[in-house]
Amino acid sequence: MGRKKHEVWVRLMVLFTNMGRCVYCDHAESEELDHVVPRKGSGADHWGNLVPACKACNQGKSAKGLFAWVAEMTYREHAENADKWPHGPRGLMWMRQQIDRAFDDVQARIEGVKAELDDEVRRDWFFDRYWHLSKNEPVWVWRAWTEASVAKARTNGYPAPPPPPRMRITRGRLGQLFEPVPEDDAR
Known about the structure:
With 187 residues, the chain is mainly alpha-helical. The chain has helices spanning 8-15, 55-61, 66-78, 92-118, 120-130, 139-156, and strands at 32-35, 50-53, 167-169, 178-180.
């Protein structure tokens, strides 16, 4: 069973959460979607299990669980500052505190992403504007093109699109099936 290719509007919706940054390292621009609970570990292939990630973090996490990945990342970051002797002031307990703090930070960012994805107004905004994009189009192109409009929408609270114009069926001219209804026409 292959990996599901999500609609472009879903991928854009997830990539722009967490202010468009990777949820794991929180400084690189998000480039890919990552499953919080890996598919290998029976994680759902649904946007509720997706978070934005940079390429390096996504490849590094691979099929690891969240805590294992955060522990590995934190250990690599703080290994040079740790004591060689495990019972020193910067020994095992210090490293465990660093890992716990990093895990809490990542978990808080993931909860923030979940809250953004659960926002129905935001989800409708992405769907209304980008549902028509093809699954096979490269999402990085659309991410670059839509970044300014998403930033503007974020500051405006993801406004609803204007209502479609009222139309009526006409047979007046050859080839024209619909015509706009004037505002003052009550029919």
